[in-house]
Design brief:
161 residues, mainly alpha, 3 strands, three-stranded antiparallel β-sheet, single chain
Length: 161
Amino acid sequence: MPMPEHTLETPATRLPGRHCPSPRDSGGFTLVELMVVIVIIGLLATVVMINVMPSQDRAMVEKARADVSVLEQAAETYRLDNLAYPSTAQGLQALLEAPAGLARPERYRRGGYIRRLPQDPWGHPYQYRAPGRRGPFDVFSLGADGSEGGEGDDADIGNWQ
């Protein structure tokens, strides 16, 4: 005779091989399992940060070098057209728009020598001086600290390197 569906299962009526779930077999994670997973994720994050952070610093230095090179080339092209480098007072702005007082303003390239003045990777403007301390002109970034001199990430990056 078939059992009604609403009958409770007892050890006598349980089919062989079937397991009756207990409250401890609820399928969740224990606190120890969760802690182990959190520790493993923390260790992986630490390893990634240790390997990624120096790469970011190197990338910022390389971007500054590339920007300095572009500004140096623009200043050289300005000199070829106007027979002199921009003065320190005119600065890098002279590469965007013709400065006042050019001897031959018609020689200034239409549209300027660069599209925009970039900032260095640390958010500071690039520096320019003519005559330079290390050549006819200096174009440089002050590095991470934003002041002249320094070592490592704080070192100046310029067209003399």
